[in-house]
Amino acid sequence: MSKSFDVVVIGAGPGGYVAAIRAAQLGFSVACIDENKNADGKPALGGTCLNVGCIPSKALLESSEQFHKIQHEAAIHGISVTGAKVDVAKMLERKQKIVNQFTTGIGLLFKKNKVTSLHGHGKILKRENEKWLVEVGGDASEVVEAKHVIIATGSTPRYIPGIEVDNVDVLDNVGALSLSAVPKRLGVIGAGVIGLEMGSVWKRLGAEVTVLEAMPSFLAAADEEVSKLALRLFTKEQGLNIQTGVKITETKKVKKVIQIKYTDSAGAEQLLEVDKLIVAVGRVPNTNGIAAPEVGLRIDQRGFVEVDDHCHAGLPGIWAIGDVVRGPMLAHKASEEGVAVAERIAGQKPHLDFNCIPWVIYTAPEIAWVGKTEQQLKAEGVAYKKGSFPFAANGRAHSLNAAQGFVKMLADANTDRILGVHIIGPMAGELISEAVVAMEFHASSEDIARIVHAHPSLAEVMHEAALGCDKRAIHN
């Protein structure tokens, strides 16, 4: 007889494992199916985020930034350092230790919350007696029953036709996190989050980095003032060679060199030769083989599971969350959708506002935003006012030797309700949380302006930006 559960979750990434735990907290019997394995062939919970994405990339970013500070900033503090060297193997060992700690931790959380962990490929087979039959394919294949199924299978790297990723010389995010040595010349195709973060890591460690971006503008999703400053800082001050508006015509290996032929934004033909190449042109939903045809699961032309505003897939008891559905491909978005679906199954009425989901790019300086950009408000014809304040006028930023960038707040011209906040500067990923809370509670810029912010702190820049919406910033 098949094992029977109230809820079966397919995928143990940040959406799936969180959904499983929340469903268990609500009193449901829960199983979570995941097929991911680590380098040793053992089950590895946590999905892309914990294994080869968010967590390991931040570990390498921090290591490379520490090396850069020792080389270029220690002297400012009166600290003399000579002979600083990079031990890439040790750096990767630290990264993997952090990954192992967190992936093992999910297993412990499953045990604590009585979630049954099943290893294998999850596939919805059919509906029988008002329950779904879900296959767990693998070394010990089995079929389990579920009243509700939550699809949380995440995404995989998008590849470019004609460019073969072998994760030896041509790399995706997995290979980019595992380079055993610093390449002399590194090429990156794609100037999105992954491309910029990985390019920054290896540039700080000594690589000559060229980033090729097909879009005509840099960081088009960010506020234009932020992307303009970011481009200047990344190129003129940090030495990244970022080319936008390019069209790649050919990529091939010639002995140990990778040759990339492309036309630049002016239409001129160019040739780039690199030792390693990272392909970072986005991600695609991982929906192959998740349901038998007779199930009737609707998947659109781009590979996303079609769902309504509540993440329901239009079939009794079938839900989908995270990267396999519409909306931003962000780990924290997936987690909150997982919580919301578990609570909806329990009859609750949670709400998730996509306009209040923060974005963060962990470069140096960091970039973060929430809500509308200034160009979006202009295009929509929304009357707005703005306040902007530089970190250059903040004492805490100067003590950190990180006084570049600014906070920009956009508010409705009539109601003063905050419509968007954009940050480029130190700890932007932490500072943006105040803006998210404010927008969730429909706060006005005056609300932030009236709150006492600690001195000296980076948060004072948020405070001054809010004051600036009414043209009454104190220190600008």
TrEMBL record:
The keyword Flavoprotein applies. NAD(+) binds at G190, A191, G192, V193, I194, G195, L196, E197, E213, G282. It is found in: Cytoplasm. The keyword Nucleotide-binding applies. InterPro entries: Class-I_Pyr_Nuc-Dis_Oxidored, FAD/NAD-bd_sf, FAD/NAD-binding_dom, FAD/NAD-linked_Rdtase_dimer_sf, Lipoamide_DH, Pyr_nuc-diS_OxRdtase, Pyr_nucl-diS_OxRdtase_dimer, Pyr_OxRdtase_I_AS. It holds the Pfam family Pyr_redox_2. Binds 1 FAD per subunit. GO terms for biological process: 2-oxoglutarate metabolic process. This is Dihydrolipoyl dehydrogenase. It comes from Chitinivorax tropicus.
